[in-house]
């Protein structure tokens, strides 16, 4: 574990993750400087959240790394950045904010162990990655664990940075794991850390070893950062690189890219985790769907049976094929982590979904408006379009992430009656779809909503699912989704 007190740390990237990393390092006695290429006025929101002991170096990165002991990267900072390359050449430790959180959790338990003779091993992490569905699956898993009576800490690529969550909620407590059968007098704080992990975060892990991990799906994404789908797939596969036979890995049995990961990375590893699956199409060891019923086929299932009828698919509150997969993945992880089947069922029956992910906004003149602003890549939009049988007026476009829009052609032809395009990618998208459906441009989201309204009839769907990043016109996908909802709510009834 990294020693922190007295170390000189450079945090690269002042945003949510940078603030969390800087504050927790400072609280543990490190000398912290945060650097960002943006100017101070662009970062005022984050500057205000920093501890007063943290120094700033803004408007560009430092030319000298003399005296720097460790560099912490925010997820958006690429490993190809000149500062990072120079640091590695000098032998300076370079890790990501997520890895820092993992190491701090371990080091705090080590400190506690010196004070307590009775203490369990490292608090287990349950980690979820994939191109799409990560946040929904992670939130489902966290709620299932809590429903079963476990104490959890939620963070990573969902909500707050994990370092921030530790800083706020855990650092002032003894970090020890509880078990149901342990002495009731054991003063404990957590059973699990539940984390959503992006490919960017996985690039910079070293020791991270989750007790349970899941890869939901792999489709082309972030190809503006990765040179190929294979490179992107390699980043996702790092989630299990330190796992062993004491850990478990949940994979999508219906995904060809994940099958390649299993073939090339998991099966050839002598220290591989126990592998389980989820599937909409076939019976697997794990969780699967057949004839409108979700089954759990897992070791030590309730009542000594291997094949447990978990829930009927129409009882699951969140709808769509993608959400069925998310529900099965979360269920598999929860059951393997020790949740009861009833706790899993209760959450699946009650969980209504997350904002900006196939979120119903309003019905106006018989037209449903759906906010899927989190549909930032082609794979996500494919799953969204699959979920509807009614005609769709699709609002799409934004900053191109080098996605393969041609994969959308069959569903655009079959289900999209009109396509309203915004943002930097609009011309490229028109060239791909103009022969399939009516395509119109809009200068901004407000114009897009009104043009979609004019082209929709009773019984249709107006769907915002952009297949692109938001940064050309919005702060992030949440900002885009909030503006869409506001515009829809302003439509006259």
Question: Any overview of this molecule?
Answer:
Helix content is 33%, strand content 20%. The protein is α/β, with parallel strands linked by helices and 493 residues long. Helix 5 (134-147) packs across helix 10 (321-336) and helix 5 (134-147) packs across helix 11 (341-350).
Gyration radius, in Å:
23 Å
| Proportion in helices | 25-40%
How would you classify the quaternary structure? single chain
Strand content: 15-25%
The low-confidence runs, each spanning 5 or more residues with pLDDT under 50, are 110-120, 174-187
| Largest sheet: number of strands, sense, barrel closure | 9 strands, mixed
Query: What is the arithmetic mean of pLDDT?
Result: 90
Biggest β-sheet: strands ordered side by side in the sheet: 7-8-6-9-10-11-12-13-14
- The helix-and-strand class reads alpha/beta
Shape: globular
The N- to C-terminal Cα distance equals 60 Å
Number of separate helices: 16
Quantity of strands, as a count: 20
